[in-house]
Design brief:
The chain is mainly alpha-helical. The protein has two domains: 84 residues, no CATH class; 206 residues, Fic-like fold. Helix content is 55%, strand content 9%. β1 and β2 form a beta hairpin. It is globular, with a radius of gyration of 21 Å. The two termini are 17 Å apart.
């Protein structure tokens, strides 16, 4: 979707037509066209927009299944602007940012599940191998296992599959519960505080297969953000493992996003309550618009904060 971007330089404001093209391989191309220091009138803006679309052969996208096109366009714009600036940065700065994401994601995804290792302690563990005092061996292993699994999906070229998911779970459960790591549960589970029940041990294999078929069917039909959000939700619904489902869900969500050129999402521990509420609402109603919209808000928060005030 083409939209108006406004940039400030000193006291002056400049207006642009803007659109970001994302290829099937996840490559981004930023399209910008200066239209003046004042916003054109409605009729003139319509003409400029139509000419811009024809000039750059921009596909006119039909309505998305769950996304708001204008909000998506603005998110794409912010991400595109950040990535354009990132190309001008030295490699060491890019690596530092990626490393910072790894630390923060590792901290948050485990803190959501009750791990008490702090962000500062997580950084010390991953960067300097300094072990915090008063923490259980399980909590220590959860931190290092998450780092390993995240690095794996960042380098991974495979798509979501049973083999990949079982491998991620085995990584996450290493030195914690090796006997169950990478295995579909054969016993019932319940979720504290939830108002729904996961499939029974007799149903879980079939439901897991249905989840994978759904993902394969919708991989090209849905927008990548829609696909990532609803994949996350449907995986949680299946709850294929006795432990570690939330952490694995957040990993495969990021795999879907990154394979399609989007930045990974870092759901923060401070957002746990709204995160769970949106999950449960979508599960109970099977209506996905609000959950997808929540993902758009959270996706790439660091990117939006970096670009704040520069649009």
């Amino acid at each position: 979707m083409v939209f108006i971007a406004r940039k400030k330089a000193g006291k002056e404001a400049y207006y642009y037509l803007a659109h970001n093209l994302r290829s099937e391989r996840g490559k981004w191309k930023s399209l910008r066209e200066y239209i003046g220091k004042k916003m054109p009138g409605k009729a003139e803006l319509q003409k400029l927009t139509e000419r811009f679309i024809l000039k750059h052969n921009i596909p006119v996208k039909k309505k998305y299944a769950y996304l708001d096109p204008e909000r998506l366009a603005r998110l794409d714009y912010v991400i595109g602007e950040f990535q354009k600036k990132a190309k001008e940065c030295p490699r060491i700065a890019i690596e530092k940012r990626e490393r910072d994401f790894t630390i923060r994601f590792t901290y948050n995804t485990n803190a959501i599940e009750g791990n008490t290792v702090s962000l500062l302690e997580t950084a010390a563990m991953l960067e300097k191998k300094v072990m915090p005092s008063g923490k259980s061996l399980r909590e220590i292993h959860e931190i290092f296992n998450t780092e390993k699994a995240l690095n794996y999906i960042m380098a991974c070229r495979a798509d979501v599959s049973k083999r990949l998911i079982l491998r991620l779970h085995k990584m996450m459960m290493a030195n914690i519960d090796d006997s169950q790591g990478g295995r579909i549960r054969d016993y019932p589970v319940s979720i504290e505080g939830a108002n729904w029940m996961p499939p029974s041990e007799k149903e879980v294999d079939e439901k897991f297969g249905e989840f994978l078929k759904w993902h394969a069917k919708n991989r090209k039909r849905l927008h990548p953000i829609e696909l990532a959000a609803i994949t996350h939700l449907k995986f949680i619904e299946v709850h294929p493992f006795g432990d570690g489902n939330g952490r694995v869900a957040r990993l495969i969500t990021n795999l879907v996003l990154m394979r399609n050129g989007y930045p990974p999402i870092n759901i923060k521990v401070k957002d746990t309550i709204p995160y769970v509420k949106e999950l449960q609402h979508a599960q109970n109603t099977q209506k996905f618009v609000k959950f997808v919209d929540w993902f758009v808000q959270k996706l790439g928060e660091d990117y939006m904060e970096s670009a704040k005030g520069k649009e």
